[in-house]
Amino acid sequence: MKIIIEIDGILTNLRPAYWQAYQEAMKQIGLACADEGSFWRTIRRSDPISTVLQGSKLHHITAFESAFGTAQASPTFAEKLELHEDAREYVKKLKQLGTCHYVTLSAHAKVLSEMLTTVALPGCDTTVTTLTDVQFSAQLKSLAGSERPVILLSAGERLLQAADALGIIPIGIASGACIAKRMPRFGAITTYRDVDAFCEARAEGDPVLVRAGIQGDRR
Fold first, then answer.
1. pLDDT digits (tens, 9 = 90+) for 21-67
2. Strands 12-13 vs 82-83: parallel, antiparallel or unpaired
3. Checking phi first, is residue 213 left (phi over 0); if not, alpha (psi -120 to 50) or beta?
4. At 145, phi and psi to the nearest 5?
5. Is the dihedral of CA 125, 131, 135, 139 positive or negative?
6. Angle between the 87-97 and 195-204 helix axes, to the nearest 10 degrees?
7. What is the mean pLDDT of residues 102-125?
C-alpha cells in the first residue's frame, strides 16, 4: 500500500506557527489581537476571519489575508513549526503499513524534511514534496502512480478534494487546522483524531476502510 501524508498538521503542530503569523499580520494592519484560543477555533472551524479581526472593516480583511499569507511563507513561521510529541511513533506505524510519501502545501519543505529526519527510522526517505498551485493535481497523481490502493492522510480540505477527484482514497486526520466534521464535505471517506487512531482503526478492520479496499489484520 502507498500512503501519501500531508505533514502539515498530521506530523507537525501548526498552532504556534499560525499564532505567530496572525500576530504579525495584525501588527501590520494595525489591529489588536484576539486571544489565541479564539483565533485557533476560528481557523479550525473556518469561521469568517472577521471574527478575530476586532474593529475591522472590509479593507482590513483584505489586508489581513494578504499579510497572513505572507507571514506563513516567512522564516519566522518555519521557526515556530514543531513536531507533534508522538510524531516518531506515527512515522514508525505508517512505515509498517506501506511506502510513505510526505507532502506539504507550505513553502517550508526543506525545514519539514529536516525535522522529519530527526524522528524517522534509519533508512527512511524523509523527502517532503511541496505541492504547488500550478501543478497541484499533476504532482499528486504522479506520487500515486498506478499502484492501488493509494491512500491520502490529510489535515486540510484542498488535498482531500484533489485526492477524491484522482481516485486516491482520502482520509481525514483532525489534528491540524481543520475540525473533523468539515472533512466529509471535502471528500474524506472517514476522519480520525490522529495517526494513532487511524492505525488502530485499520488494524481492527474499520468497515469504512475495508469497503475502500484497506484490509485490517485482526480477526
1. 999 999 999 988 999 999 999 999 999 888 888 776 888 899 999 99
2. antiparallel
3. left
4. 65, -150
5. positive
6. 30
7. 91
